[in-house]
Every structure is written in structure tokens, then in C-alpha cells.
Amino acid sequence: MRIEQALYGEVKGRGHGLKGSSTDSSVAESVATWLDLPDGVPPDVLAWSPFVRGFPFEGHYVLARTFFDSGSSRGGMVLTHALIVSLDDICQTDDLAVFFERLAKAPDAFPRTHRPKHCGRRRGSQHPNGPSRCRQCLG
Hints:
Layout: E1 2-11, E2 15-21, H1 26-30, E3 51-57, E4 60-68, E5 78-86, H2 87-91, H3 97-102, E6 117-118, H4 131-138
Antiparallel strand pairs: 1-2, 1-5, 1-6, 3-4, 4-5
């Protein structure tokens, strides 16, 4: 299973956008607007940072953790670490905790590189060493 990573946040001259990705796929770029703050943010929004969301998008599943960006040039900006997996692959996953464990835990814990994570399992096949092996491959 191939798990792509992408980082989103303030991009000079453009506002919120893709800062880096492990893929050249258009999905990482296209999903950027979905990973900004929602339009109707409650006044006490700081109480729910960070937050996690997941949704299907163009044949993939996106799981993302979003944080407020206290270092941005203006208020209301966010940083987001997203994992992008084929919808077929994530539907065959027995334990979604594997993905949650891979998301950045804090804004200063974002991956330094945007390399994809890969366990080598072919789509539709069982991992030869069971689900726990996939957890090791993701690390």
C-alpha cells in the first residue's frame, strides 16, 4: 500500500496552499482548498486545534490533522499534514489507527521530507506478515 504525504499552509503570495508533497499527482494540489479552515469557524475556534478530518477525494481517501499556524503573516492561517491513500487500499485496511499514528502530532513535528510510506503489499492481497507488518512498514 502506498501512502502519500502532503503538507499545507501559508504559501507566499497565494494564501493557503500545498507546501510540499511526496507525489506529483494532481490530487495533492487539488485537495488544498479542502484542507483550509472551514468557512463557518466558531469564535472559540482555538479550543479545537488541532483537529482531524478524513474524506474521499478523486478516488483517494485523505486523512489530515490541522493546526493553527501561530507563525503565519496573518491570523486564521493553518498548517495541515495529510495522508493520501487510494480508496481501494484504505477500504481493505483492518485498522485505521495505523494512519492516525502517522499524522504529525504537533506543528513542529511535521515530516522533514515528504517521502511516501510503502509496505509493498499489492492491492487486493494480504500482507505476508499480517496487519502488524504494515505498521512496521509505515514507520
